[in-house]
């Protein structure tokens, strides 16, 4: 069975500092990995995905994520955080053969001025 | 591109009534749409997978007679909560997968349902 773990309920970072939101996954085959962001009372916005290819994936709003197969991780990163990045971030995984996404529990990012 | 809309954005109804939520893919055709439910401060739970022209596939524990899903066209899926009760109050989110690129799901803005 597929699963995703986001070990941190909340991440606090000062504006201008680099940020990392952690995600580890478990899937039987080759993983398709995704990051989404959710602002209050809104749906999810797609940030980036890893399907195959380069382990470093660049996405929207300056975010990037690094796929690490040996550590089964897909951490979300940004070199310089903005206050407007404060939101709820979800990591998700699906097996190549299936369309169903499995989401992590979410990590709230709080960027302070 | 890849915009998904939901209507209504919020709805308040009396217990025992039925509520229909629409999910539309605005600029792409979606063979498959998904319906999720999100409780406060929790993750998204998949309720069902909706395929155009066929019956929806429901996740374990989701009552198909209570949550009716219709995917009548490649751009529209509807979720009807029948005989709603207060415990059905939640945030319902749909997503759609473009027919030509089924790798990524694009999400609607969500519908906040409150049952009194």
Blueprint of the fold:
The complex is a heterodimer of chains A (113) and B (116).
Chain A: E1 3-5, E2 10-14, E3 19-21, E4 24-26, E5 31-38, E6 44-50, E7 56-58, E8 64-68, E9 73-78, E10 87-95, E11 102-103, E12 107-112
Parallel strand pairs in A: 2-12
Antiparallel strand pairs in A: 1-4, 3-9, 5-6, 5-10, 7-8, 8-9, 10-11, 10-12
Chain B: E1 4-7, E2 10-13, E3 19-25, E4 30-38, E5 44-51, E6 57-58, E7 67-73, E8 76-81, E9 90-98, E10 106-107, E11 111-115
Parallel strand pairs in B: 2-11
Antiparallel strand pairs in B: 1-3, 3-8, 4-5, 4-9, 5-6, 7-8, 9-10, 9-11
Sum up the structure in keywords.
heterodimer, A: mainly beta, Immunoglobulin-like, 6-stranded mixed β-sheet, 4-stranded antiparallel β-sheet, 0% helix, globular, B: mainly beta, 54% strand
Write a brief structural summary:
The complex is a heterodimer of chains A (113) and B (116). Chain A is mainly β. Chain A has strands at residues 3-5, 10-14, 19-21, 24-26, 31-38, 44-50, 56-58, 64-68, 73-78, 87-95, 102-103, 107-112.
Poorly predicted regions of chain A: none
Gyration radius of chain A, to the nearest Å?
13 Å
Tell me the helix content of chain A.
under 10%
- What's the total number of strands of chain B? 11
SSE arrangement of chain B, N to C: EEEEEEEEEEE
Pairing-aware structural class of the strands and helices of chain B? Answer: mainly beta
Mean pLDDT across the residues of chain B is 92
Specify the overall morphology of chain B: globular
Written as H for each helix and E for each strand, in order along the chain, the element string of chain A is EEEEEEEEEEEE
How many strands, what sense, and barrel or not for the largest sheet of chain B? 7 strands, mixed
Radius of gyration of chain B: 13 Å
* Helix content class of chain B: under 10%
Mean pLDDT of chain A: 92
From the structure provided, what is the oligomeric state, counting identical versus distinct chains? heterodimer
Largest interface, counted by CB within 8 Å of the partner chain's CB = A-B, 19 and 24 residues
